[in-house]
């Protein structure tokens, strides 16, 4: 079983070491982790003339198509939501109909995080809806992130695993990730 | 030709009026716009027992599957990136192999916006890489958003349309959207 490991982990100072750590956990559970920066077995020669960002995007898409499941690091990234590249990949795999899992090193729900992010710009209308400084509504479904993310995970047969981790360990702690791996491995 | 209209427009104070405005532009170009809040022709009866957020997610997925192309409002939403629900849907459609388009009411590239968002937390390393306060790298490919977004649009045969619009008109101006509609209609 091959599992694509989506997340902003590729932006860490030593992304290859991070990828190795994630893959080691997968191996302990008898599955193969695929990190976005892994080379493709065979890369179409015509990609050589594309700009680097397009080659990376096509490589990641190919990795996802070749995987049996996806585990996404949904820990909030530079705002109340997960990294958009990660969520793109989660949506991509969901369309392929395979299981998608998510994990996060915060247990705060999306509404709480968005309110914290907006601070005094968030205000509650008489009907109970929270709105930001541009009058745009905040989701209030008790989800971990935008409802498309939570909805895809549950509909696909995956699960969300969350832990409340201190900020200093937010990009190192992997307990919630490992629970996703164990559950994905259980689907074999 | 049916075009799914992804975007945080659903969070506006009058989302149905917004949907009607987007669809009117589509109709002028001879295509049919599908707004996320549109009802499905037939909704499986078993969805009735699901929580509301799951029903909405499944309905949006069904709308995307039934569409020929997708146009995403990528105007930055509560941070340097587009709304993650929108990007999920863009990834979903990309996996289906159909054209995806994006538009934004800012012309600033992703690196510039992320640096502005981070302020003094962004610092440039000797190798030229920008990193945030957690030492995580900023993308520097000159893209509009995360490279998965730009990569998908170009690989799918779609395009990105951007205008620099004053903040007060960011959620009303539709010129860049209309250029996407015209280009999508040209693919018929």
Q: Identify low-pLDDT runs of chain A.
A: none
Sheet with most strands of chain A: 5 strands, parallel
Distance between the termini of chain A: 7 Å
Question: Can you tell me the overall shape of chain A?
Answer: globular
% residues in beta strands of chain A: 5-15%
Oligomeric description of these chains? homodimer
Number of separate strands of chain A: 7
Largest interface: A-B, 58 and 58 residues
What is the number of helical segments of chain A per DSSP (H or I, 4+ residues)? 6
Major beta sheet, strand line-up of chain A: 2-1-3-4-7
Find the structural class of chain A using helix and strand composition: alpha/beta
Q: Notable features of this structure?
A:
homodimer; 188 residues; alpha/beta; two-stranded antiparallel sheet; 7 strands
What's a concise summary of this model?
Two copies of one chain form a homodimer. Chain A is built from six helices and seven strands; from the N terminus they run E-H-E-H-E-H-E-H-E-E-H-E-H.
Structural description of this entry:
The structure is a homodimer of 188-residue chains. Chain A is of the alpha/beta class and 188 residues long. Chain A is 37% helix and 13% strand. The first copy, chain A, has 6 helices and 7 strands. The first copy, chain A, has a 5-stranded parallel sheet. The first copy, chain A, has a two-stranded antiparallel sheet with strand order 5-6. The model of chain A has no long low-confidence stretch (mean pLDDT 97).
């Amino acid at each position: 079983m091959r599992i694509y490991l989506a997340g902003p982990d590729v932006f860490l100072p030593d992304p290859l070491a991070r990828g190795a750590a994630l893959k080691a956990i997968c191996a302990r559970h008898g599955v193969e982790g695929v990190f976005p920066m892994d080379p493709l077995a065979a890369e179409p020669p015509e990609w050589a003339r594309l700009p680097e960002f397009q080659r990376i995007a096509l490589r990641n898409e190919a990795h996802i198509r070749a995987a049996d499941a996806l585990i996404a690091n949904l820990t909030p990234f530079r705002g109340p939501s997960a990294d958009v590249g990660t969520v793109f990949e989660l949506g991509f795999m969901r369309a392929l109909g395979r299981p998608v899992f998510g994990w996060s090193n915060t247990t705060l729900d999306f509404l709480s995080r968005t309110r914290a992010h907006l601070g005094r710009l968030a205000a509650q209308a008489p009907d109970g809806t929270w709105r930001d400084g541009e009058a745009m509504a905040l989701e209030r479904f008790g989800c971990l992130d935008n409802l498309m993310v939570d909805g895809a995970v549950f509909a696909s047969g995956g699960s969300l695993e969350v832990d409340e981790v201190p900020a200093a360990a937010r990009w190192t702690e992997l307990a919630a990730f490992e629970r996703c791996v164990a559950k994905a491995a259980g689907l074999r």
